[in-house]
Write a structure and sequence with these properties.
heterodimer; A: 465 residues; alpha/beta; 3-methyladenine DNA Glycosylase II, Chain A, domain 3; TIM Barrel; four-stranded parallel beta sheet; 18 helices; flat; B: alpha/beta; eight-stranded parallel beta sheet; two-stranded antiparallel ribbon; 10 strands; globular
Chain lengths: 465, 310
Amino acid sequence: MLVSGSQLVKLLPNKRPCRDCGFPTCFAFAMKLASGGATVDKCPHLSPETRAKIEELLIPPMKFVTIGTGGNKLEIGNEEVIYRHEKTFVHEPGIALLVSDKESDEEIQGAISRIRKLHYAWVGTMLRANLLAPYFESGDKPRFIAVVKRLRESIDLPLVIISEDAEALFAARDICADRQPLIYPITQGNIDTAIPKIKEKPTPVGVRAESVEGLVSLTTKLKASGIDDLVLDPGSKTMLEAIRDQTLIRRATLKQTFRPLGYPTMAFPCFMVRDNPLKEMLIASLYVNKYAGIIVLSNLDPNHMLPLLVQRLNIYTDPRFPMAVEEKYYEIGEPNEESPVLMTSNWALTYFVVSSAIESTKIPTFLLVQDAEGLGILTGWAAGKISGSTIAKLVKNCGIEERVKHRQLVLPGRIARISGATMEALDWKWEVTVGVREATAIGAFLPKYAKELKGKIAAGKAVPE
Amino acid sequence: MEYKAPIESNTGIVNVVTLGKPGGETVRIGGENTLPFHFFDDGSWPNPSVFALQILDREPPEDLPAFLYEPFKDVLHDPAKWAKKVEEFDYVDAIQLYLLSTDPADRGSAPEKAAEVTIKVAEATSLPLIIYGSGDPDKDAKVLPAVCEAVDGMNYLIGPVQKENYEVVGKAILAHGLFASAQTPMDINLLKELNVKLGHFFPLERIVIDPLSPALGYGIEYTYSLMERIKQLGEIIKDKMTQMPMIADFATEIWRSKQARENEEQGILWEAMTSLSLLTAGANILTHRHLKSMKLVKEMYESEVKQWQK
């Protein structure tokens, strides 16, 4: 666990309220230290040993590691919890595409353009894969170097260089060291010769052992040589081993502050599962939930990647803040001036469910989304975020009045009670219909309503007098 | 620095529930005092989680993709034949019969009709049934008691029991020797409150928790974390109101999403990833609509579970 103020205060002088640190008491100072709001050098009364001890305690239990440079760099580590409900997961795992140097140049070009094209818009964010992982498999070193060079030159994504042959590994590193690739694997077998090579041009390092315990001596040795940007692979072969190894590393890091395991991890569904792309994706999804910092895949089929990237987004959503969408009118299908206008709240879940239910009816519709600070309809109303006047304000300001020629608004059934207040706040220029209580009923409601609306418009009764 | 593996143990044990009619196949869930897949900790998870395939009491609505029900396309008009056909796929542990047609927003069919269909399905299959009403609390208050009477003594799981109808539905479930799936909308306090209320007249060991399971992309993270908390409260804090096994009933929700409907492989993964996440969070029962997504997760799960039970 992160160090607490009450642990730190025991190491402070606590003799008199000297206020030399600028805080009224040692306890207040300790609390600030723990939360990162102050630094230990502000206290002039500490022995060098105590100061060093406090500084050690203040180092985050899991190392923060950056792979790559520039806007596409991947930042992992620094996680503070085992379960996301304790606080939140912080750094989404990087999704890497394995590129074997055995593939033809056309195939490699295809992989580059696939990862470049692969992006999905998902409620205000863009979902993408993050890394390329050139893999030395051909046995032909010049070929491998050529592939790495090509990847480096054609796309600005961070690289994970994978080679069991240490010579090829460092030769590949040499041509892109300025881009801070992760080099993998450093193992018991190559660590002694690798250490001086790593120190020539320091980049992040992937460490592999056959077990969690096996990693300890390797990371200890690397750290003693001043190499500390590490990513761990405990060599898991199955789903259960993956959960075991990842859980033990996370627990040792956070509950025991066991520094030799205090690093982010990497995982290889591409090697764990052969010739079963769906199963490979499931293993990858498991690693999203269970702590991996980098997940290497053998393929990026767009129909397989969307669910994985959505899951990553979901699991790394901060549970302390409700997910919300922007307040405005959304167009579902291609609505025109005679299309229905429905209204809902901006809690992302409500918005998703409602918009998806409308979409299934295939009736082009405008959906007004009211900012309820991320609350649902009923709680938003109960908290005073949704009322007749807020809805009226939204209708008047969002521009919907220029998009439709009718003045007919549908409110969610759950806030039927404010339909009168809404019409009043709209100066009786709109007519309000009470819709359904559950989004699941939209499928039955909307087609009927759209027909009625059409009838009203035809009869010239769609604008209140 | 010496490494000492951080092994943990818990003392709370999840209630055991055995579902299935006398003489038929039964499934047993619960009994665990470890967190899901934590075979490396002290303790055990003696009864593997079970996979239930969802069938409907009517032919599937036309807006559902045809690939979803491909293996059953000749029997979709007849729930009993549909249920019988499910038995051909030996990786299916149980059947969820979803009484969709009783929904006032669907056909609004009568409680007597639901009871009639249910008994036919129960006679057609030896697999345990999980029988779900439409979720409309008022309608379920009429439908579910009729259904309970029809399957008297068959040890099936009946739901969703909600705060609006727990008294009438709970009493019917109890009177006919069945199990209750207690459903609340993704909230730890609401689910404990419902269990407390039920507990005044209903044995806690006959309850399964249904915390509502939205699809991937539509709020799965809420249920993922909620299930982790429920399991931890039950096993670590020994909170009696969260020591029931849990059902992850996402079968209907998945296929509401555009992403699952628009492409079969994407749909299969949409359901399979939702399932695996909730399995990892601690679900004891998982409902699927797509046979292939179930097979995918079940085979992975089973091969691994065998390894850990060795």
